[in-house]
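Lecture notes, unit on protein representations.

Consider one protein chain, 330 amino acids long.
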Amino acid sequence: MADGSVPDRNLALELVRVTEAAALGCGRWIGRGDKNAADQAAVDAMRAMLDTVSMSGLVVIGEGEKDEAPMLYNGEEVGNGQTPEVDVAVDPLEGTRLTSVGQPNAIAVIAVAERGTMFFPGAAVYMDKLVGGPEVADVLSIDASAGENVERAAKARGVRPSEIAVVVLDRERNQPIIDGLREAGAKVNLITDGDVAPAIAAARPGTGVDLMMGIGGTPEGVIAAAAVKCLGGVVQGRLWPRTDEERQALVDAGYEPDRVLATDDLVGGDNVFVAATGVTDGALLRGVRYTPGGAVTDSIVMRSRSGTVRRVEAHHALDKLERFSGREYR
């Protein structure tokens, strides 16, 4: 740490300004039916604020390849160029459709870890995921059936399977999981988009979510692993190629599609920082709330090394914020 190559301060306290900016940037697009405009507003605000953070960041999980994403693309350098050197995973607006129609659980999120410790998913668009909190971390297995994992979680928590709440992305590919959960008697909460917030909620007590499972985005799995690592829970994943061609592309690139990826495989190292700010209300965070001349944001800030989890309620004077940042938030 003496050479400055490893983060030696709580970067998450700087990163929360980044997610607050993204949430405020897209907050005025809630319910307006334009998910692309909402996403672009979040990206623009997050990118501008990222350059003020004291770090030399490399985007590992971003908005896509450079030719598809002019900002926050995979491989882009962010931060002010000072040490430490870090990997960065961003989702400026996780839940673009949720925001456009005013539904719950849209968030802005960023994760940072030591350089070279974040899993790059390559051609793998989807991943089968299983997420739980510290109470059930030692009993869950992605190789077990959905029903068996519910029974294991219920036994570990000393409750009945009917008291275990599981969040699953509502997709046809997840129907066998949904059927297995219902057969086991679990409470199944189907979501239409955005599984990072539910994954964090599953690892955090008092949210009403016990497990998150099913096939969703691989980049979201990496971000969820960063957060869960801070919270002491567990993420298990397995790449889910959509076609034989995609599977072969992964094999040719050196990936093992059938390998179970543990939390440490997705995010290594022991100094991980995560910040997330609510855009719309959800199980994890409250959304952006507007007041006369201002706005209130609700964020969560985490660091794995210390295990500290902070809740940050920020009151923003939009006129001052606009003069300070040069951006419009009203």
